[in-house]
Amino acid sequence: MLMMAGAAQAEFLVIAHRGASGERPEHTLAAYERAIDQGADYIEPDLVATKDLVLVARHENELSGTTDVASREEFADRRRTKEVDGQRVAGWFAEDFTLAELRTLRAKERIPSLRPANARFDGLYPVPTFDEIVALVRAKEAETGRRIGLYPELKHPTFLLQNAGIDMVDLMVAALRKHDLDDADDRVFVQVFEVEPLRRLDRLVETPLVQLVAAQGGPADAPAMRYADMIAPSGLAEIATYADAIGADLRVLLTESGASTGLTQAAKAAGLDVHAWTVRRENAFLPVPLRSAGGEGAPGDLAGLVALLEQAGVDGAFTDNVIETVRAVRAE
């Protein structure tokens, strides 16, 4: 059941952040399938595009952090330095590769210092296309008899449009229509940190849309805007004219002590659902009161964080650790 603000309280949504990325290299079919098998309600693919206009799942358009491209001599001359959303980034970029070239790469763990066990799976999995992810979801729905949602994020749409001539909104709309996922009752959310891409999507599809907001900065396509202003009451009212929910940084939802900041209630008053990012078990990602002994990579009190989010009235959360989050949510 799609959960919208103002409706009776529905079950807290468990959104697999890049798949079961606490256990497998992120944005691989293996990570998505593991998350589904562990009970995730939605899986979240971050989408970038290839030179030949195919949507593929990577956390960033720069590839060296999550694939073996830097070790591939045949692609040494593809290394570039680009300014992406105001940041200079050096590396290899998906938009400079055809799908056939990209498919020769293999995924690797993005943060091996914190998740050394995941690095055992380096080199095993290719970069999946959005079409393959949809096919996986539908196969798993047939296998399990339950509905599984998709929660894609468009990465750097304005940069890609202005610098590579790639229209991520157009590609997303075409993909949603191709797979009959463009209606309001489809189990899909599309999320973006930017504003105008969401406004365009709102004019083109009925799919629920999510405005992402961070603790600092503002949308790359609107340099004068700040996320802090967007989550003020007037800003939330404006978001509600084109989106159905906000995807909010934990730091704007909870204080350092774990109390609600009141943003959830303000968003719901504006007619918006609230999804939090990101629940992770490692101490490095947890509020200080929920950390354990043992260093940054040691597991802390993930269930405690989930409880705080539920107490704050949040409707769901992105998580790297699906099984632990499912257990925490279903504990009642």
TrEMBL record:
Its EC number is 3.1.4.46. Keywords: Glycerol metabolism, Hydrolase, Signal. InterPro entries: GP_PDE_dom, PLC-like_Pdiesterase_TIM-brl. PROSITE patterns: GP_PDE (PS51704). Pfam families: GDPD. It is an enzyme of class 3 (hydrolase). It comes from the Bacteria. Residues 12-329 form the GP-PDE domain. The keyword Nucleotide-binding does not apply. GO terms for molecular function: glycerophosphodiester phosphodiesterase activity. GO terms for biological process: glycerol metabolic process; lipid metabolic process. It catalyses: a sn-glycero-3-phosphodiester + H2O = an alcohol + sn-glycerol 3-phosphate + H(+). GO terms for cellular component: periplasmic space. Gene3D superfamilies: Phosphatidylinositol (PI) phosphodiesterase. The keyword Metal-binding does not apply. Belongs to the glycerophosphoryl diester phosphodiesterase family. This is glycerophosphodiester phosphodiesterase. It comes from Qipengyuania pelagi. The lineage of its organism: Bacteria, Pseudomonadati, Pseudomonadota, Alphaproteobacteria, Sphingomonadales.
